[in-house]
Amino acid sequence: MTAYLLRRGGQSVVVIIGVMILTFILLHMEPGSVARSVLGLKATPARVAIFDKDYGLNKPLYQQFILYVKQLFQGNFGISYQLQQPVASLIAQRLPRDAILLGLSTLLALVIGVPTGIYQALRHNLLADDLLAGTWFTLYSAPDFMEALLLIALLCVQFHILPPAFPGGVTSVAGLFENWPALILPVAVLSINSVAGFSQYARSTALQTLAEDYIRVARAKGLPERLVVTRHVLRNSLLPVITILGLSLPDIVAGAVIAEAVFNFPGMGLLFWQSALAHDYPVMLGGTLIIGVATVIGNLAADVAYSVLDPRIRYGST
Amino acid sequence: MRRVLAVAGMLALTVAAAACGGTPAKVGSGSATHGKMVRGGTVTVAEPSGASPNDIFPLEPATNSNGYNTNLTMGEWPFLVYVGYGSKSVVNPQESLYSSLTWSHNDSVITIVLKPWKWSDGAPVTSRDFTFVYNLLKANYNDWLGYNPGLFPEDVTKVATPNAHTVVITLNRSYNPAFYTDDELAFVPLLPQHAWDRTSLTGKVGNYDETTAGAKAVWNFLQKQGSDMATFDTSPLWKVVDGPWKLASFQSDGYYVWVPNKNYSGPDKPVLSKVIFTPFTTDAAEMDTLRSGTSLSVAGLPLNDVGQIGELESEGYAVASVPTPGVAEIVPNLWNPVNGPLLRQLYIRQVLEYLINRKQIVTQAFHGYADPGNGPVPVTYGQQWASPLEKAGGPYPYSPSKAAALLRAHGWKVVPNGTDTCLRPGTAAADCGAGITAGEKLQFQLLYASGSSYFDQMNAAIQTSEAQDGVKIVLKAEPFNTLVATTGTCNAQSHPKSTCNWQLQQFGYVPYSLDPSGAGIFNTDAINNYGGYSEPKMDQLINATEYGSSPSAFYAYEDYAAQQLPWLWLPNQDSVVVYRKNLAGVVPASPFDFTLNPEVWYYTSSAK
After folding, report:
1. Which of A44, A54, A263 sits opposite B63 (nearest CB)?
2. B570: closest CA among B407, B392, B383, B360?
3. Rounded distance, CA A47 to CA B63, Å?
4. Chain B within 8 Å of A266 (Cβ-Cβ)?
5. What is the DSSP string of B509-549?
6. Which of A28, A33, A39, A41 is the best substitution to test chain B (most B C-beta atoms within 10 A)?
7. Count of CB atoms within 10 A of residue A127's CB?
8. Which residues contact B413 (CB under 8 A, 6 or more apart)?
9. Beta carbons of A46 and B142 less than 8 Å apart
10. Which helix (H) or strand (E) holds A303?
């Protein structure tokens, strides 16, 4: 296992460096002047020159890349052209907030989706299965911005039950929980789409599991149905869910741009979106790097979790 | 020349009216809210999407073009010359920092006598504070966002301070005093030399600014401190203010809180105990918050949402609109390699303008909240500058028949809802014009910034109305930053294909300082002259407004510009503001405050 982890770790470093180089090159191939984009219509040649000098954009591309890598090794992601703040600080402010928002919504979706998926498998082709499947797919197919706006119109504007937007000035994680009523709608909206995925994965795996010989044996031995489900079906149904969870990690890091925009929740998604519009390379590079790392970690974590949940899976041996 | 400070849409407010408690210096005419003044209370103001400040040093660096920083700083360090008096677009001497401002020596010397104001730490505001600002700018103007080539401080040959409250500025030429006062001195704040003339937080205050090297060191230190958002509300530097407000709290997302400066020397002492500025990620989030009737006291209303005014009024809000000081336009690229020759013909630009139905655009795209755009000067904010020609609707009111007649008179085959073609190439008066070939089509691509539904509507309307006479307009919308990054200023000398491939562009509007001069916009090689218009007579007329003092010079320039169409004139949107009905002083509002002026706001009922 250790050898496997070391080998995967080495591969991951190569992947991340590759992503970094590719992103750096692609961003710099973008047409147009960064300085003009940031400084606006009144970017005189003199101001453009000052800007390019300040940010090292007057250097050859390979020198800019070397400089960027050197900065990275010092923990410096650069300064945002647009926001004039250190990228590390921008990410540090927003990432924990998104982790809370998307972590909670993923957890909620998991808690609802997996049990209902197994329940549907147990009620396969019965009315309950059809009703639940129809419900989840209806919600899944509705755009999340539409769900958000409908919930806001109903719960915030019509009945004044919940706040429609997150208050400004809440930059700490503790502040998020102090304003917990404002978290309810974004968490709910983000959960809705994920529930369908989790439940359908859990349902299909549970159906396969229920057809396995060991389930028949367990039932034949007189094991109560509750134990059959919790000990055998649930555990095996979690395997594909682990894959989804592992792949969700980069999504959590990348933020949820629509929910962030609608609910006044400035997170990573809006940060990337706005930086992409503004040619803000340091932010885009920093974000891509973080997402790349999260992707690698998510996959690795999923692999490790497999082996924990399924003793038949052993890495590092042929 | 234009200052580059951007105006924050709805935040372009000034304040007026008090039903009781004396007459604020900013009072205009009338008041929207009547009742007994209640001292104290908190007002929460919405910052529009993308309007969060990120620099607190009032002389922002050239590399930070965030115009919303002025919203943060102006309440703490007001400009020497205060612009806006109620709804009137004029200099407000009562709010300004000078008690007299006199021009002499053929309008080349300015003598400014400062009012006996005090800084918040009790030190007097003196002429040394002006020389501090001047010395910093003289040594660093290339790195100052507000710098315009040839103007302040480059045009200053000498600054003398005969006493602690008098400043004498000698300029290198004569100016039109109104232009210089309105457009230059109105952007110079006074800064506390006794607290800021230092190169580190722990070092002693000195007279470092008196040498170029020292001024550069102080500048670098203050710029660095000014961009450190984590210390905006804690740094001892920013605690020393001469405006009505002090910064009590600042968060990195742009949320900040003002509390009254107890030692404010100006005429309008704040009545409110706290003003909170809260950021929004999108207009939709701001609108939802307004409609849920929760915490917001004042907010800008996106024009897309004016249909909801009735519901907002039922939630306890009042609505006001404020004209935008600026000129909205479609810029023709006279040096586009493909159809530059077309656009260089005045009659083609006249055809294009005749076919823009501006009244319809005002009504339908802007829901009535816009200046009609009859020429270079808006008629809704500056009556004293708008010429009779502009007030009468401008030289080119919507007229498809006149447009068609012009085209036919110049040898074009007019194909309504098709594409016109040139039948008579040549340079005679009845020909298509120089550089236009036989069979050439009358078609243009119009680039505009995406993301605004009223721009979409306006440009679609233009496309349709131009098509009536066979002028084909192809619309292309891209994000503002992309457009800015990929298009450049083009002129006869330089029009590289890489950045001059654009034909027509519409980005919004160019903001005006108080005096809506064409300097910096339509004169040859001006910073805003993106399309390369160049005409000696225009240069001469603009110079007359900038350097001369003839009262008729302005109208002469304005009418000539309106007729020559260096740009195609468009309606310019107003700012629409919603505010709590029990909050007095928000209206009448001036277009010229670069920030809100809550020092004259107050609640009129028990609700706060």
Report:
1. A54
2. B360
3. 7
4. yes
5. EEEP-SS---TTTTSTT-TT-TT----HHHHHHHHHHHH--
6. A41
7. 8
8. B420, B421, B422, B423
9. yes
10. helix A281-309
Of B388, B323, B349, B326, the closest CA to residue B517 belongs to B326
* B18/B25 Cα distance (integer angstroms): 10
What is the Cα Rg of chain B in Å? 25
In contact, A268 and A73? CB cutoff 8 Å: no
Q: Both tokens of residue B375?
A: 């020429």
**Radius of gyration of chain A from its Cα atoms, rounded to whole angstroms:** 24
Q: Does B401 touch chain A (CB under 8 A)?
A: no
Residue B24 to residues B115, B189, B268, B297, B591, Cα–Cα distance (Å) = 17, 22, 6, 21, 18
Neighbouring CB atoms inside 10 A of B190's CB total 25
Does residue A97 belong to the interface with chain B, where contact is any CB pair within 8 Å? Answer: no
Q: How far is CA B548 from the centre of its chain?
A: 24
Sign, Cα dihedral of B40, B42, B43, B48: positive
Instruction: Report phi then psi at B19, rounded to 5.
Output: -75, -25
Q: Cα separation of B437 and B452, whole Å?
A: 37
Model confidence band, residue B547 (pLDDT cutoffs 50, 70, 90): very high
- B474-489, pLDDT tens digit by residue? 999 998 888 888 888 8
Q: Is the pLDDT of residue A303 over 60?
A: yes
Characterize A199-234 residue by residue with b for buried, 16 or more Cβ atoms within 10 angstroms of its Cβ, and e for exposed: bbbbbebbbebbeeeebeebeeeeeeeeebbeebbb
Round to whole Å and give the CA distance between B173 and B155.
8
Q: What is the 3-state composition of chain A as percent helix, strand, coil, each rounded to the nearest 5?
A: 75, 0, 25
Q: How far apart are CA B382 and CA B554, in angstroms?
A: 13
d(CA B602, CA B27) in angstroms, rounded, equals 13
Q: A with B: how many residue pairs have Cβ under 8 Å apart?
A: 137
Mean pLDDT of all residues belonging to chain B = 90
Phi, psi of B603 (to 5 degrees): -85, 150
Cα–Cα distance measured from residue B334 to residue B355, given in angstroms and rounded to the nearest whole number: 19
User: Among all chains, which residue has been given the structure tokens 């073009």?
Assistant: B65
Q: Which helix (H) or strand (E) holds B590?
A: none
Residue B101 β-bridge partners: B112
Give the closest residue to B120 by CA, choosing from B68, B199, B196, B15. B196
Encoded amino acid at A223, one letter = L
Pick A37's closest partner by Cβ from B143, B227, B481: B481
Q: Which residue of B has its CA nearest to A257?
A: B281
Are B119 and B238 contacting, i.e. CB atoms less than 8 angstroms apart? no
ipTM of the complex in this document: 0.82
pLDDT in tens, B92-146: 999 999 999 999 999 999 999 999 999 999 999 999 999 999 999 999 998 998 8
Please determine, for residue B511, whether its predicted confidence score (pLDDT) is greater than 80. Answer: yes
- CB of A50 less than 8 A from some CB of B: yes
pLDDT tens digits, A262-279: 999 989 999 998 888 888
What single string gives the DSSP state of each residue in A237-270? HHHHHHHHHHHHHHHHHH--HHHHHHTT---HHH
Report the share of chain B in percent with pLDDT over 90.
70
Q: Looking at this protein, which amino acid is placed at residue B282?
A: T
For chain B, the straight-line distance linking the first and the last C-alpha, in angstroms and rounded, comes to 43
Bigger pLDDT: B17 vs B226: B226
- pLDDT, tens digit, for every residue of B264-311? 999 989 999 999 999 998 888 999 999 887 778 999 888 888 888 998
Q: How far apart are CA B322 and CA B588, in angstroms?
A: 9
